Amino acid sequence: MHDHPDPRSVPSHPAIGEGGRRWVQERLGSVLRYLFAALPLSLACVALITFSGRVPGIDEGLPGLLADLGLGAAGIALLPWRRRRPWLVALATVAPVAFSSTVVGPALVAIASLATHRRWRQVAPVAAVFWLFLVASAWWHISPQAAVLYGVVGAALLGAAIVSGLYVGGRRDWEAAWRAAEAEAQGQRVEQAKLQERLQIAQEMHDVLAHRLSLLAMFAGGLAYRENLSTEQTREAALAVQENAHQSLNELRAVLGTLRREDERGLEAPQPTLAHLESLFDEVRAAGQRVEVDDTVKAREELPAQTGRHAYRIVQEALTNARKHAPGRPVRAELDGRPGGGLLIRVSNPAPPHAAGPGGRLGLVGLAERTRMAGGTLTHAVRDGRFVLEARLPWEA
After folding, report:
1. What is the pLDDT of residues 201-234, one digit of tens each?
2. Domain span at residue 357?
3. Element (H, E) at 350
């Protein structure tokens, strides 16, 4: 007697991993409901076939029996509409109970369906009519003693139908609330993922622009304080300032364009990776930064692109940090790694004589967060008079 959830009030999409089980439960429940509704009709048909011609007087009452069977079949035929019109179907199946015993099954199923909506102003009168008609039919067609028995059994069946309907309705509401909460949680997870990606893009913006602007500051400083530059050197420095400013604008435009796209899954390719480090070193050397490189990375072509991208940004930010806090001092960059052994990045420079000013550690904070999200570790400390930044990134075999 369990009823289907109303398809208009329950989301059509099943919970992940629950669709197949829910489909089986619904199909099984539907079969059981129709079997229960058809039980009185089936028993009446079997009795009619078994006792026809054997029991005196049964043939004279055959038209009435056929009418009874017809009402039971009509009640079963109405059941598919009980979800759309539960009130009308319940009334239509309960009313013939006064004249038909085979319609009791469809009437109980319709009452259970009506109870799933928990509208007591409809359930109470229909249940009362069902019980009164059932008792009156037994009193009229059988005996007063039978009416008492029918009243007790009918009340029990009626109570079971209503409780079953209330349970199904409550479970339907619980599942709808659970699905809504799950959908909301999934939406929050999606938004969190988008926010996380945008934070990473913002970190990319910081790394790129900090690198470019520090180069601009170095070129501009050379133009401002060096008075022995020839006309050609001054021209080259000015062109370098122009080129770096132009690249800064292009990179900023690319990153901001990525932030504006709602369906963005990552930065536009190509992004700099470990293979672009040599160009980075040439660029900073051209700007006047002295960099010594010790690169012993093996099988670098097997390094995942994402790890290579993180490695590039770590080296870039480390060089930027050295230009900020130890301008003009030599920098040593060491890279080592192999598949299965991880990637080691160590950048060191003479420790500055003074502490970093306000905001001076933000680049290191960003690097630490980037390295953590990549599954690696980052440390920085002053060792033997040198500031050493060391990052370790995973590199699976």
Report:
1. 677 667 767 777 777 777 777 666 666 767 787 7
2. 275-397
3. strand 342-350
